[in-house]
Amino acid sequence: MFLVEFLSATLAFTFREDLGFTFREELKFGIEMHYAPFANNSVSTLWDQIHNEFHCCGVTDYEDW
């Protein structure tokens, strides 16, 4: 188990820029395709909760909306 964790951490560190880019793009896609301000779905609820908790908007800035 330790070997798997060590390998995962090493790969994540090695490819951190690619992973960061992929996560940002997926989050932006989620906003564009699944966020509806007055809908009661899990994506909308999650984004609203994140924005309220961290006092921010979007993935990188307000232009993501």
Describe the structure.
The chain is built from three helices and no strands. The protein is elongated. It has a domain at 23-65. The N and C termini lie far apart (41 Å). 69% of the residues lie in helices and 0% in strands. The protein is mainly alpha-helical and 65 residues long.
Distance linking N and C termini: 41 Å
Strand residue percentage: under 5%
Structural class: mainly alpha
Mean of the pLDDT scores? Answer: 83
Q: Bin the helical content.
A: 55-70%
Number of helices: 3
Task: Based on the model shown, name its key terms.
3 helices, 65 residues, mainly alpha, single chain
Layout of strands and helices, then pairs:
Elements: H1 2-14, H2 16-34, H3 42-54
Structure described in brief:
With 65 residues, the protein is an all-alpha fold. It has helices at 2-14, 16-34, 42-54. It contains three helices and no strands.
